[in-house]
Amino acid sequence: MSVLDAARRAREAAARLAVATRSVKDAALHAMAEALVRRTPEILAANGQDVAAAREAGIAPSLVDRLMLTEARIDGMAEGLRQVAALPDPVGEVVRGTTLPNGLRLRQVRVPFGVVGIIYEARPNVTVDAAGLCLKSGNAVLLRGSSSARRSNLALVEVLRDAVATAGLPADAVQLVSGPNRDDVKELMRARGLVDVLIPRGGADLIRSVVENSTVPVIETGTGNCHVYVDAAADLDMALSIVLNAKTQRPSVCNAAETLLVHQAVAEAFLPRVLAALRDAGVTVHGDSTVASYDDAVVPATEEDFATEYLSLDISVAVVPSLDAAVEHIRRYGSGHTEAIVTDSVSAAEEFVARVDAAAVMVNASTRFTDGGEFGFGAEIGISTQKLHARGPMGLPELTSTKYVVTGDGHIRG
User: Fold this and answer.
1) R_g of the chain computed on alpha carbons
2) Which of 6, 161, 355, 394 is 20 to 30 A removed from 266 (C-alpha atoms)?
3) HSE of 379 in the Cβ direction (CA atoms, 13 Å)?
């Protein structure tokens, strides 16, 4: 089946989803969650083949980690679907309403996009997250994962489609677009009029390619070159805990910290501690000359290092003379994803929040909290780093548009 055929079928499914009641959609989400758990063995078998092939091909360990599924991760995906079912249905929500001076009643209400295309890399959990969020928000979804996860995604989509159909909704609400080459990606990017919006999730090259080549409107989910800035007024025990969590809790994801900035006033007290802790955690530190003077194991940092989203157990570290310098460093190298400050100074925190241009700014908290689930949105479709339509973790409301409903009583315009 061609991408265009799949898109036409998706449009038919979307027409039915748009008028589906919350109870029907929620029942489908629960059926999807139960099916994932029940059919875990076949999903893991398919994923095992993908993981084995990835390792044989020499794919980086961080990418293998993003690819790998476990029983616990599948349980987490199922729980994410249940959480989405428990959330309010955004479709039909009145964003604003008023009665105009002429008596016309005006309402702006949320409506589904229609057909959403997702182009993503490696992580098969995106398959489930995207399917669940799109279904709840009344959208049909066309999924295009990477070839490295093809067997996993095929198994997952088969499970999800069966569950959706069992719940009385069209199976074509969830479709995998997965051909033997990249021609289907090009078709998906050119399916304007059939696909309403594309959302790329992955590395900088993928996102850039979709943004530059798509004729379908794109919501850009950006890379995560995230910073933790340890201020002169920081609690250093807290700072150490936050840095280690932000870097090592799961280094292969976009909200992991990639750069540590340390105010020079606390460098002597903090750097020996944090460098030792990072070394013990297996992290390679790429540091400026001041940082390198504290530890022979530090790799001299280059300009490219500070601009890099490592997605691995690597971190760039620099000493800065002031909060101003920290903000300037972030402006130069940051990707607009998540930035964090550790400080006991209310004024420093307020200044950092006001001046840093990012989708999320953390005060005395790990960058790892920039996540739809952690924010209470349920599973997320991605983290948008652009400023139009949506910014930050994209939950259900961000998968809708709006339309105006105007009710009169025979009104005509004079």
Assistant:
1) 23
2) 355
3) 27
The phi, psi pair for 311, rounded to 5°, reads: 60, 35
299: its two tokens: 């790799």
Beta strands in 145-202 (DSSP E): 174-176, 197-201
Residue count of the chain, please give it. 414
Separation CA 275–CA 288 (nearest Å): 13
Measured between its terminal Cα atoms, the distance across the chain in Å is 53
> What is the residue whose two structure tokens read 């997952």?
156
Pair of tokens at residue 5: 């055929």
Closest CA relative to residue 7, chosen from 163, 188, 154, 132 = 188
Q: Where in 122-180 does DSSP place strands (E)?
A: 140-144, 174-176
- For 219, 288, 396, the CA distances from 197, given in Å and listed in that order, are 7, 42, 15
* Region 355-378 average pLDDT: 92
* Separation of alpha carbons 169 and 174, rounded Å: 10
pLDDT in tens, 304-325: 999 999 989 999 999 999 999 9
Q: Which two tokens stand for residue 179?
A: 């051909």
Beta bridge partners of 406: 106
DSSP string, 232-279: TT--HHHHHHHHHHHHHSSTTSTTSEEEEEEEHHHHHHHHHHHHHHHH
Q: How far apart are CA 145 and CA 110, in angstroms?
A: 28
Is residue 326 within 8 Å of residue 340, measured between CB atoms?
Answer: no
- Residues 385 and 391: their CA atoms lie apart, in Å, by 6
Closest CA to 118 of 214, 241, 1, 20: 214
Task: Tell me the sheet residues that pair with 401.
Answer: 111
Q: Which of 390, 253, 393, 392 is nearest to 336 (CA)?
A: 392
User: What global pTM score does this model have?
Assistant: 0.85
Residue 199: helix, strand or coil by DSSP?
strand
254, β-bridge pairs? none
Band (181; pLDDT cuts 50, 70, 90): low
Distance CA 380, CA 204 (A): 19
What pLDDT score was predicted for residue 222?
A: 74
Could you give the CA distance from residue 131 to residue 153 in angstroms, rounded to a whole number? 12
